[in-house]
Amino acid sequence: MNTYSRLPVTFERGEGAWLWDTRGNKYLDALSGIAVCGLGHAHPAVSAALCAQADRLIHTSNLYGVALQERLADALTEAAGMDRAFFCNSGAESIEAAIKLARLYGHQRQIAQPAIVVAEKSFHGRTLATLSATGNRKVQAGFEPLVQGFIRVPYDDVEALHAVARNSPQVVAVLVEPIQGEGGINIPSDDYLREIRALCDRNGWLMMLDEIQTGMARTGRWFAYQHHHDLYPDVISVAKGLANGVPIGACLARGAAAEVYQPGTHGSTFGGNPLACSAALAVIATIRAERLTERAAALGRRLLDGLHAALDGCELVVEVRGRGLMMGIELARPSTHLPALGLERGILFSVQSEKVIRLLPPLIISDAEADEIVSRVAALVREDAARAA
Ligand SMILES: *Cc1c(COP(=O)(O)O)cnc(C)c1O
Question: Is 198 contained in some domain?
Fold first, then answer.
């Protein structure tokens, strides 16, 4: 169905940070399939794991033990500092799992109409519950009636959360992105997550983080919340970069939150099947072996410095910001035409919130490829600034 207005290109092959279209043109991929292909395209460790597992066993269902799912749960909860994992097949499903977990947690505490606090400009997915949680009218319009039970506050506004704590006894959880991705690479104040943790502790709320875009080493840590020392959320949603393009999602939980679901309360036919888990295990092993969290942090600094230098004095640029390999270049005017221009210049990126160029390059790029991203993007922005001036 006609759900996407697609750019006029079709790719047929990829290698690392590069894609080739059906006409043989070559593109530098600074979007990674929207933060999915963190190891780049056709990574040999992922291909080898998938081929070997496809030859052995693809799926049996969750009616039986799944050894690779248990191994993945161990590896993922260790990286995330969590206790238990539920596996599903997408980001939206991992948020659905978090929403249902929070409601069940509320009902177990005799809260009849549990509510979850969510943020403006957030994005949590396209299913009915997750679009209702999303802070973007465009995502919701036409799909009313929305799912009830969400209270919306401005992002990065601790005072608004305090007001909710005073006025809304039915709240059971706060759900936010540690950095808003679709909303335009919005990085909150340094103490935002810590303030949320304190509020959750004081009120018995669950702190739930949507790390679907920020997770899997993207920001220079396994998960973005780990930039804060000694701080742990109760629930984390993971997907996108988890298996380098094989569909999988996970809802991770810690402490009391990890014991909320019991047999029969939630499920998924495909979730955590051996094929998807084999790819995710290969991703985690590669991030560890190649120290890609540290690498993402270093590359992020290189890209930010490079972009600041290359765009210095360009009046079209409002701000260049980012953490690790999650970056935004905010422009002074609507710039939704830029991805098509980038395509002509052989560079892939997206524009969010109409004015923010979003860069999510693979974690495996070389320094030279990082510099090439800087020069291609900066040239494009300067060209566009000159054209309109
Ligand atoms: C992509 C994304 C989702 C939705 O994931 P899907 O796999 O598309 O369902 C939810 N939250 C955030 C922060 C995302 O970036």
Answer: yes
- For 287-351, the DSSP string reads HHHTTHHHHHHHHHHHHHHHHHHHTTT-TTEEEEEEETTEEEEEESS--TTHHHHHHHTTEE-EE
Q: Which residues are identified as catalytic?
A: 123, 210, 240
Do 25 and 49 fall within a single domain? no
User: Do 23 and 74 have their domain in common?
Assistant: no
In this structure, the answer to whether residues 85 and 22 fall within a common structural domain is no
Q: What is this structure's pTM?
A: 0.98
Q: Give the pLDDT score at 117.
A: 98
Does the pLDDT of residue 388 top 80, yes or no? no
26 pairs with which residues across the strands? 20
The DSSP symbol for 241 reads G
First-to-last alpha carbon distance for the chain, in angstroms, is: 39
Say whether both 49 and 68 belong to one domain.
yes
**121 touches ligand 1 (CB under 6 Å):** no
What range defines the domain where residue 96 resides? Answer: 45-289
Measured from the CB, is residue 122 less than 6 Å from ligand 1? no
